[in-house]
Amino acid sequence: MTKNMYLVSGNICGDRVRLGRALQKPPMTQEELARKINLMGYDITPLIISRIENKQRHVVDAELYILAKALGVSMEWLCGNGDDI
Questions:
Q1: Rounded to whole angstroms, how far apart are CA atoms 5 and 68?
Q2: Which of 54, 55, 52 lies closest to 34 in space, CA to CA?
Q3: 8, 53, 74, 79: most buried, per Cβ within 10 A?
Q4: In the predicted model, what is the mean pLDDT of the chain?
């Protein structure tokens, strides 16, 4: 029997990444978010963002930090804790 090395299947931030994009004025597409992150010096594609939002990909702590920074939200908010962005 193989143990799963992850405690959560998928991720806990996908819904909030999607919501964070929608709350931007104007709302941000996955392509725009990927472009913004790339301009910050990190390599991420719209496909990666799509897989994160659909909980098909785990998110490491460094990616969580970059996503929060690009969306202008806290890492805690991205993880689903609290209503304050």
A1: 25
A2: 52
A3: 53
A4: 91
Cα–Cα distance for residue pair 20/9, rounded to 1 Å: 21
User: Under DSSP, is residue 47 helix (H, G, I), strand (E, B) or coil?
Assistant: helix
CA atoms within 13 A on the CB side of 57: 15
Q: Which residue, 33, 30, 35, is CA-closest to 68?
A: 33
pTM: 0.86
Look up the CATH superfamily of 14-77.
lambda repressor-like DNA-binding domains (1.10.260.40)
CA distances from 24 to 39, 40, 68 (A): 18, 18, 13
| Rounded-to-integer distance, Cα 60 and Cα 72, Å | 18
